[in-house]
């Protein structure tokens, strides 16, 4: 004779594979009917010693309850039209689902950079897209007569406001709001606007991420360390950086920073024009004029700053060859990331 | 600026190989846009042999040449007689379609009805410095069709560099050579300029009436020049770097400007009456410039003129006048080397819309001292040696208040503390000396050379030291500064939560363009005040800042629908803008668009989207953001189909809108299925992102479940029903959920059946059936009293 657990297992399997109400009724009769297998065991109880009888009786009752519950559930499932999981199941049919959602690659890239920089102690906040000329230019050592304003073709909304040409415009705002709490490590990201004609690598709207650190002891060497960590986080532990002299009105020394080519690992490819290096960001030590505009004292405070084109980094990370894809929002594009 | 390396090497000794010179340019701080190694980039130029030459009818000085460019392949090329050519000569030929390193692309062209299929290239036209007559000539038939780079050895490069606006001293080759010499440890060699003041011509007197605009004015009479085309070495240098040779006198002034950065001007001495007066244009005065345009005087900010005793002759620092320039008949020259204030030049150049190489340099700032003198001396020497001048007169020099040298202190400790790398006093001194600074008193006194107009603060000295040492000398090391925690804002966290919730529900994040067309859709917006418009847009398509994310979401749906992607689950998080008062305002918004099949990867059934799917998405999102007291109330908003839109109210504040896009809008976009959109103000949701909800004790006593089904008028809102149930049930009602809503067969017209499932529980005891039955009775009778509800199945 089978043990009770064996009987239970067989009964449950029988119930789960019953694919009609008739078959289910047949299963019920086979186990719980007047001459059913479980009923037959129940009838043997009377002949047992009292202590065995109690234990055996409980086990039989539990088994009976399980079988009854299984019959109920199977009945409900059959009424709802659920097919039995049996040999007729074609497991190769696709699962029933909806297509997964995706984060836009620009957001994903900006968030990746934010996470790394937060880990390095930089705090995040948002700043206006429609910015005053003062914060966008004057506070950044770029007064109206400055030739560097030629580098920006600026959209104006009225006499005093521009669509910010760079997220660097946040620097004096942060410093002024800091209430003299030093050190400051701050970052922001957002849209920037320039009067560029649209082509494969230019779009009049683009995203930047800017960060700066000001303290008593913050040096160009820290800048290099911070950017190296950022590059390693973004492009992998083998990423190398190269610093080249450059010019920005709001930093001196200024450095243009290249990262070792993410595609060819410096063996030379079309992406890096066989140079092994990709230009990724501008950086430098903050100008005394900028610190003063932020209410700080350049004789006591010094700091570094850098700005990154998020679109460009996104294109490099995914080897996207045309910036227009980023703003076209074609599903076939968005679903790749 | 275009740099020919062979020309640059004139100023460096010993000679540096290209492999060292080219990498040095970016190290100096020049932005190298393109570096054409000519031995590689002139490969498309081939040796062709001239088989016949005949004059081009109707064009004096032009010839039609039949040039064999490959065995049996003869092309017709028209050439000008700048350099004579002869039948049988092999010459460099660039056929149509070739792009030369100078940036010029050769096209097929027709002159006087005759087709020209290419160009016979002078050295300068290919970007090379001429070492002979200015044209490579071959007498070897065996070279026919060979690449020029196989026919001769070329050891030059043509580099297109961008000189940053802070370094106008590098707008001349000597400036660049000085930097390269410092980086590579070679010697800077100045060009020869023997002092040649030997004439006895009377010096021309100079008056500066606008000393704030003209700091210094020098001029010198040079007599007896023979105006003629420039020699090949000079003409090729100008051609290679993008200037058109004109005549030897003008070419010399251009050449020296390329060399020393200092712009010069040459007047025909006989056009200068009595004296030079540097003054503003007077009202009523006008001057026709070399480029044919006319400058008018008058007004408070009149441009600066170089005038003689009677009338303006040149637009100072920007462009010469047509009448006073060098002509073929010119014999005596008045050579000008002056210094103008950048701001004045910049303003005039901008206002008049006249730009020139000279204005470009002056508006960035030139050296009023040594460089100015060196350039004038070099030019007068060249006028003698190249243009055959017989005599050079004395210099008139008016310099009312000579510029004082700027002085800074730059101790080595300051450099080390700024760069974060230990730099010795010797390193600082030697680096600065190489760039022409004069260091003394143990670096307490560093005198800046006057050509370095960019050095307005001591930090520039630190940059110069860093450049000479090489930026790679600065090691990466972690901060010695106090650490800070990297924090973010509630709004940023709310964006993250919303993004994760929506992506988890199968939504695609879009990235829109915040600028929209002037005639774009202004509906859907919940903002007050007019839109923010751009005063100077790129074009009318990107002229206004958007005030709602919905138009872009709809456009994107249309774009993807036309590519057969019809199941829209989109969202975007971005700012929206308007001008409710004088100042523009911006705030963060979340736009959601939903349409098509909800279960797009289901092969068994298809579930179309309706309003409640959108509402469900919004509710889940609000739940993720811990929003409390959320209400949806009917609203009418332009753009949404009438009767389909709801205002989303959170804690009595309007937080957004959700509804169905008007079908006629969709039909115009060729979308023929219902589409739903919501737009939420993220700022109103941000507070919840930081909520840390307090724990409520878990229930210890069993619940009692009751379902209730009743029929009410269609006009009765479900929210009112639920509210009535809650009030009637009292505190033991734990939850009430809508189970089913049905109207149609078996239900009276104008009414609907609603079924709810309720859970009752007491915190301190097991509820008795009777307690719950009494509560259900109360609910049933309240529903009847308030809404005339007939309870079913009782």
How much β-strand is present in the residues of chain A?
Answer: 15-25%
Number of domains of chain A: 2
Strand order of the largest sheet of chain A: 1-4-5-9-8-7-6
- Rg measurement of chain A, Å: 35 Å
Order of helices and strands of chain A: HHHHHEEHEHEEHEEEHEHHH
Mean pLDDT of chain B: 94
Count of individual helical segments of chain A: 12
Integer count of domains of chain B:
6
* CATH fold assignment of the largest domain in chain A: BirA Bifunctional Protein, domain 2
Cα(first) to Cα(last) distance of chain A is: 60 Å
Q: Oligomeric state of the chains?
A: heterodimer
| Largest sheet data of chain B | 7 strands, mixed
Counting helices, strands and paired strands, the structural category of chain A is alpha+beta
Strand order in space, largest sheet of chain B: 27-30-31-35-34-33-32
Relevant CATH superfamily of the largest domain in chain B: Bira Bifunctional Protein, Domain 2
CATH superfamily of the largest domain in chain A: Bira Bifunctional Protein, Domain 2
Approximately what portion of the residues of chain B adopt beta-strand conformation? 25-35%
Architecture (CATH level 2) name of the largest domain in chain A:
2-Layer Sandwich
User: What low-confidence regions of chain B span 5 or more consecutive residues with pLDDT below 50?
Assistant: none
Which regions of chain A are unreliable across 5 or more consecutive residues at pLDDT < 50?
none
Report on the structure:
The complex is a heterodimer of chains A (about 325) and B (about 800). Chain A is of the alpha+beta class and about 325 residues long. Chain A has helices at about 5-15, 20-30, 35-45, 50-80, 105-120, 135, 170-175, 220-235, 290-295, 310-320, 325-330, 330-335, and strands at about 125, 130, 160-165, 185-195, 205-215, 240-245, 250-260, 275-285, 300-310. Chain A has 2 domains: about 5-80; about 105-335, Bira Bifunctional Protein, Domain 2 (BirA Bifunctional Protein, domain 2), CATH 3.30.930.10. Chain A has 12 helices and 9 strands. Chain A has a 7-stranded mixed sheet, sandwiched between helices. In chain A, strands 2-3 form a two-stranded antiparallel ribbon. In chain A, strand 6 and strand 7 form a beta hairpin. In chain A, helix 1 (about 5-15) runs parallel beside helix 4. Chain A starts with a helix and ends with a helix. The model of chain A has no long low-confidence stretch (mean pLDDT about 90). Chain B has 6 domains: about 1-40 and about 160-190, 2-Layer Sandwich (Phenylalanyl-tRNA Synthetase, Chain B, domain 1), CATH 3.30.56; about 45-155, Nucleic acid-binding proteins (OB fold (Dihydrolipoamide Acetyltransferase, E2P)); about 205-400, Phenylalanyl-trna Synthetase, Chain B, domain 3 (Phenylalanyl-tRNA Synthetase, Chain B, domain 3), CATH 3.50.40.10; about 405-475, Phenylalanyl-tRNA Synthetase, Chain B, domain 1; about 490-690, BirA Bifunctional Protein, domain 2 (2-Layer Sandwich), CATH 3.30.930; about 705-790, Ferrodoxin-fold anticodon-binding domain (Alpha-Beta Plaits, 2-Layer Sandwich), CATH 3.30.70. In chain B, the strands form 11 sheets. A 7-stranded mixed sheet of chain B has the order 27-30-31-35-34-33-32, with helices on both faces. In chain B, helix 2 (about 20-30) crosses helix 5 (about 175-185) and helix 7 packs antiparallel against helix 10. The interface between A and B is large, with 91 and 93 residues.
């Amino acid at each position: 004779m089978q043990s009770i657990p064996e009987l239970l297992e067989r009964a449950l399997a029988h119930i789960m594979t019953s694919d009609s109400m008739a078959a289910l009724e047949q299963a019920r009769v086979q186990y719980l009917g007047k001459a059913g297998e479980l009923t037959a065991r129940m009838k043997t109880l009377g002949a047992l010693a009292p202590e065995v009888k109690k234990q055996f009786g409980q086990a039989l009752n539990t088994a009976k309850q399980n079988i009854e519950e299984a019959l109920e559930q199977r009945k409900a499932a059959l009424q709802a039209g659920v097919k039995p999981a049996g040999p007729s199941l074609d497991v190769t049919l696709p699962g029933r689902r909806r297509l997964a959602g995706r984060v836009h690659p620009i957001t994903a890239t900006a968030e990746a950079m934010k996470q790394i920089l937060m880990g390095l102690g930089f705090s995040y906040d948002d700043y206006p897209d429609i910015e005053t000329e003062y914060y966008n230019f004057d506070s950044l050592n770029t007064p109206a007569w400055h030739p560097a304003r030629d580098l920006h073709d600026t959209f104006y909304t009225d006499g005093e406001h521009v669509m910010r040409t760079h997220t660097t415009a946040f620097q004096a705002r942060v410093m002024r709001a800091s209430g003299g709490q030093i050190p400051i490590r701050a970052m922001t990201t957002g849209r920037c606007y320039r009067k560029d004609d649209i082509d494969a690598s230019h779009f009049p709207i683009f995203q930047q991420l800017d960060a700066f650190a000001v303290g008593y002891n913050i040096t160009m060497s820290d800048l290099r360390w911070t950017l190296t960590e950022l590059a390693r986080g973004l492009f992998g532990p083998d990423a190398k950086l190269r610093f080249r002299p450059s010019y920005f009105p709001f930093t001196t020394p200024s450095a243009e920073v290249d990262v070792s080519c993410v595609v060819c690992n410096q063996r030379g490819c079309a992406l890096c024009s066989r140079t092994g290096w990709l230009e990724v960001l501008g950086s430098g030590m903050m100008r005394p004029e900028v610190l003063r505009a932020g209410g700080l004292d350049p004789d006591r405070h010094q700091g570094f700053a850098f700005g990154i084109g998020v679109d460009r980094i996104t294109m490099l990370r995914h080897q996207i060859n045309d910036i227009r894809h980023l703003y076209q929002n074609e599903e076939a594009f968005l679903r790749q990331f | 600026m275009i740099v020919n390396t062979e020309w640059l090497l004139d100023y460096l000794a010993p000679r540096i190989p290209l492999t060292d010179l080219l990498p040095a340019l970016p190290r100096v701080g020049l932005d190298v846009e393109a570096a054409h190694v000519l031995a590689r980039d002139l490969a498309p130029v081939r040796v062709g042999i001239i088989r016949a030459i005949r004059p081009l009818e109707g064009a004096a000085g032009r010839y039609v040449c039949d040039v064999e460019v490959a065995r049996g392949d003869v092309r017709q090329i028209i050439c000008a007689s700048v350099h004579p050519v002869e039948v049988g000569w092999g010459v460099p030929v660039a056929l149509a379609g070739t792009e030369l390193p100078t940036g010029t692309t050769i096209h097929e062209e027709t002159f006087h009805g005759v087709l020209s299929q290419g160009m016979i290239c002078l050295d300068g036209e290919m970007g090379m410095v001429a070492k002979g007559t200015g044209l490579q000539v071959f007498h070897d038939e065996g070279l026919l069709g060979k690449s020029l780079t196989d026919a001769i050895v070329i050891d030059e490069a043509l580099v297109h560099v961008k000189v940053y606006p802070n370094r106008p001293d590098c707008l001349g080759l000597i400036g660049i050579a000085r930097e390269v010499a410092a980086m590579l440890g070679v010697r800077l060699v100045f060009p020869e300029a023997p002092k040649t003041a030997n004439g006895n011509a009377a010096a021309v007197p100079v008056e500066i009436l606008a000393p704030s605009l003209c700091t210094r004015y020098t001029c010198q009479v040079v007599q007896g020049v023979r105006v003629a085309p420039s020699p090949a070495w000079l003409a090729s240098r100008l051609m290679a770097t993008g200037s058109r040779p004109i005549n030897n006198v003008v070419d010399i002034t251009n050449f020296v400007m390329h060399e020393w950065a200092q712009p010069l001007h040459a007047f025909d001495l006989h056009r200068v009456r009595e004296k030079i007066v540097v003054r503003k244009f007077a009202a009523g005065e006008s001057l026709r410039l070399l480029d044919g345009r006319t400058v008018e005087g008058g007004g408070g900010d009149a441009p600066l003129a170089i005038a003689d005793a009677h009338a303006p002759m040149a637009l100072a620092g920007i462009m010469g006048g047509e009448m006073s320039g060098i002509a073929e008949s010119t014999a005596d020259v008045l050579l000008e080397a002056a210094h103008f204030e950048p701001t004045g030049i910049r303003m005039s150049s901008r206002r008049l819309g006249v730009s020139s190489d000279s204005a470009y340099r002056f508006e960035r700032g030139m050296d009023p001292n040594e460089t100015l003198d060196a350039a004038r001396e070099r030019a007068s020497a060249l006028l003698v040696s190249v243009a055959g001048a017989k005599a050079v007169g004395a210099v008139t020099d008016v310099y009312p208040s000579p510029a004082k040298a700027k002085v800074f202190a730059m101790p080595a400790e300051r450099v080390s503390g700024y760069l974060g790398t230990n730099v010795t006093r010797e390193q600082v001194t030697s680096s600065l000396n190489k760039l022409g600074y004069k260091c003394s008193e143990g670096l307490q006194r560093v005198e800046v050379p006057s050509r370095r107009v960019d050095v307005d603060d001591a930090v520039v000295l630190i940059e110069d030291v860093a450049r000479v040492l090489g930026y790679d000398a600065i090691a990466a090391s972690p901060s010695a500064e106090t650490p800070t925690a990297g924090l973010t804002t509630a709004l940023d966290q709310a964006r993250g939560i919303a993004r994760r919730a929506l992506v988890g529900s199968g939504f695609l994040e879009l990235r829109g363009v915040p600028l929209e067309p002037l005639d774009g859709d202004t509906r859907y917006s919940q903002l007050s005040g007019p839109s923010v418009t751009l005063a100077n847009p790129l074009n009318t398509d990107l002229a206004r800042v958007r005030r709602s994310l919905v138009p872009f979401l709809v456009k994107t749906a249309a774009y993807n629908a036309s590519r057969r992607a019809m199941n829209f689950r989109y969202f975007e998080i971005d700012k929206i803008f308007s001008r409710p008062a004088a100042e523009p305002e911006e705030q963060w918004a979340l736009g959601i668009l939903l349409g098509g099949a909800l279960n797009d990867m289901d092969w068994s059934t298809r579930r179309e989207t309706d309003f409640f799917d959108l509402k469900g998405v919004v509710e889940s999102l609000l739940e993720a953001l811990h929003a409390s007291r959320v209400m949806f109330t009917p609203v009418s908003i332009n753009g949404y189909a009438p009767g389909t839109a709801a205002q989303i109210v959170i804690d009595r504040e309007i937080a957004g809108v959700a509804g169905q896009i008007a079908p006629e809008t969709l039909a115009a976009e060729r979308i023929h299925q219902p589409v739903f959109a919501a737009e939420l103000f993220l700022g109103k949701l941000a507070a919840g992102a930081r909520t840390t909800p307090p724990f409520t004790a878990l229930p210890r006593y069993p619940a009692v479940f009751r379902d209730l089904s009743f029929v009410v008028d269609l006009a009765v809102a479900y929210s009112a029903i639920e509210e009535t149930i809650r009030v009637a049930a009292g505190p033991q009602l734990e939850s009430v959920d809508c189970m089913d809503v049905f109207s149609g067969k078996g239900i009276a017209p104008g009414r609907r059946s609603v079924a709810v499932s309720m859970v009752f529980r007491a915190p301190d005891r097991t509820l008795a059936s009777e307690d719950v039955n009494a509560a259900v009775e109360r609910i049933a009778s309240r529903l009847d009293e308030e809404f005339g509800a007939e309870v079913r199945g009782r």
